[in-house]
Design a protein that fits this description.
The protein is an alpha+beta fold and 138 residues long. The chain is built from 4 helices and 6 strands, in the order E-H-E-E-H-E-E-E-H-H. A hairpin with a 4-residue loop joins strand 4 and strand 5.
Length: 138
């Protein structure tokens, strides 16, 4: 069951906008992966492109997704729009974990001075707010 707390787009989190999004969602598909690059695919309908024109679905917008047990931060990675029935348009959003998207969007990676791959990975994880699990070299 989709509730008002299932998908919240940060910046468009007024009660009216949250309810409007929740009422127009037609499906949500969640793909959790072990590498942390989880993806949520949301399909919804938009009457007369009202939400689309209000920039609810701009690439880079941060979303809070609640799967019923926990809330995670995602970023809109891509969107697609297609004709629906009448004045309704079908919108498909792909949301990916915020930290992973920030890493992918980073066009100027910093040079981390490291002597080992372990130290490098540890510094990158810290930079993007990710937990790090690794085995130090011997």
């Amino acid at each position: 069951m989709i509730s008002d707390k299932t998908l919240i787009i940060v910046g468009h989190d007024q009660a009216v906008a949250v309810r409007q999004i929740a009422q127009h969602v037609t499906s949500i598909t969640v793909s959790y992966t072990i590498d942390g690059a989880s993806q949520v695919t949301v399909e919804l309908v938009d009457e007369k492109l009202a939400m689309w024109n209000a920039n609810y679905f701009a690439i880079g917008n941060i979303c809070l997704f609640n799967d019923g047990t926990m809330t995670e931060r995602y970023m809109i990675a891509s969107h697609e729009i297609s004709n629906g029935e009448g004045e309704y348009f079908k919108i498909t959003l792909e949301l990916r974990t915020e930290a992973i998207q920030r890493m992918k969007m980073n066009k100027k990676p910093q040079g981390f001075r490291s002597t080992t791959g372990y130290e490098f990975a540890q510094k990158v994880a810290k930079e993007f707010g990710l937990g790090f699990i690794g085995q130090p070299p011997k």
